[in-house]
Structure prediction request, 745 residues.
Amino acid sequence: MIRDRLYHDLTNRGVTGWVVAGLLVWFYVALYFTESLTPWAQRVGLSSKWDLYGLLYTVVVVVGGIGVIRKYGHNRYQVVRTAVVMFVQVVFAFSVPMLLKALHQPEYYLSYFWPLKFDYMNPEYLFAQPWPFVVYTLAASLVGVPLLGALFGKRWYCSWVCGCGGLANTAGEPWRHLSDKSSAAWRFERVSIHAVLGISLLLTALLFYSWFSGSKSPAVAQFQTWYGLVVGSILSGAVGTGLYPLGGTRVWCRFFCPMAALLGITQKAGKRFHIRVKEDMCISCGLCSKYCEMGIDVRTYAQRNESFTRASCVGCGICAEVCPRGVLRLENQSGLVQISGVSLS
Amino acid sequence: MRLVVVGNGVAGVTAAMAVRARDPRAEITIISGESEYFFSRTALMYAYMDVMQRRDLEPHERKVYREQRLERRLDWVVDLDAGERTVRLMGGESLRYDRLLLATGSRGRRAEWERELDGVVRFVTLQDLDACERLTPGTRRAVVAGGGLIGVELVECLRHHRVPVTFLVREASYWPAALSAEEGAMVAAHLRAQGVDLRLETEIASLEGEGRVSGVTTRAGERIACEMVGVTIGVEPNIDWLRGVKTPPKLARGVVTDRAFRTSLPGVYAAGDCAEVAGRIEPLWYAAKRQGEAAARAMLGDTVEYTPPTDYNSAKFFHLEWTGVGETAAGPGRFRKLPGREASVRVIEREGVVVGFSMLGSRWNHRVLARWVEERRRVEEVVSRLPEAQYDGEFGRVAL
Prediction:
């Protein structure tokens, strides 16, 4: 754990933390709503501000990831998971799109799926693409994502592949403890994240309806613009990343991401991924809860000897890592059949 | 029922909550002079190491006490009148009870060489934590005396703050109460690798200094200059306060109770570290929780015949995790250091039957191990089935 992180100004909502949050929000506002970053991009030989953003993002993920691997080097799960998330960022979220662009092809981000990458399920856009991409997107978004979610839990995406999760679990590591653990936050989360999911499903349905009927009403177009602004720019960018030093690293993932909501549902329904609690060994120290980036009060389950699956759990595995009594274990199997703590499955 | 609980540690609060779960109408009051809210004593070290804040040590959200109508008093009990069925608080208030639960836990044992000097600390209470935090910045070296689990935790905290530590252990090998000589040597090597100046077979003879401690002299006559001395030579039931009350319950090493946690006084029960249940004291977090639940059942009128399950415990020596089950000190057993890593397994047997396990450096499911002990399995069978009890994380399965 980072030495004295709870008392460091930067990682404990001190003045530096607020200043950094302000700078991050300012950066995202500049990125999304102005062209002020374009000259900087051109100065380093990149054609657009988005390329510059992608480069910066990737560098930060790689540097942070190296730090995480050094810190948790004794834990194979953390090493493998972090290496994968770095690899996906470098290859699929940066190099492949840049290469495609250099070859004058459309930039495809093969590690992003609907409903996180909302446009990929906009029929107007999707069906204008070459057929391999159409097949990949439909198969991945509609079958692959939920199926893998049911089989392995949402972690396969949220903490192994996704760029948002990738940033949170690498460069965001020093702020992970700032997530709100209160039951009030949990209640808010269940409403907010499913509301965003509902809105994104509704909008997708409207877009398909418009496309089939051949006429798009101005209201739907406005809805689409509004969704892009609020969800895409403000919530996932400025709020999600900008508030790292204030609300922890998973504000977007926990409260707003429609893909996380969908994966959470499949994780619960799949009943395979769970956090196993070793019976009667918890000392209620609370390190698990403190360092849960999703704000899950893990200790409540552990001290009740209750193995559990929470929709929000991204399976980062830090609770199991910090537990000083080895109580917690991420498991992936069917059922939660236990007889006095011994799993039969 | 009017239930008054003295002590808001794990035994007392577990009992209060268990009573509430079954009796929605009970009036429940929990008294503690140490802290306003129940906190995890086992996590004191994480607060000292600055990886947790004080508030994080509380296992329940504060609103839980409101929701469950558990009244709290930040005060000390100074008198107990079993005839009147009242306890009197230092603040003057008297509380009537139908059932009284004494759950005042343990306190750090005093050494015979101790003197009232600033800089001499224990590591059991929140106030101890306050003292440690206050003293750390002015400490160039600390001496910790006593090689139990609290001792090694205090050492780890001090090392975390980069304070040089001399760790004095009376025994010839580290923690012989549970570890074999080989395991003791592994832990000792691990501690030394963390920069701990570990001295085995060394005890303090006297303290030096006026006002604040300035050093210790060992029995061998060596003088070690230091500004902090940690006294971690074990804990004992915190029962002295009961000696002077109007009607003391029967006391031996702890508050004497039967297997239903009844003391010698009517309506008065005791559980947790302060209780000597059928002649036995179990000063462990897990046991206190278990006893709190069982005492609640007894106070609600159930027939309770408390029998402790197979012993188990766990610990962490800096980065080295340990799981022990059964009679870990019953003999050297079949010990094996695992190749290529700081880990070992030890299966303890008596006449070919397994009686205990001591596992260092990897994770184990104590439930499976305890079941093998309870089923009196043959050692050969258990050795071949050991992987069934492993509990390492994904991708991290340790090769035996």
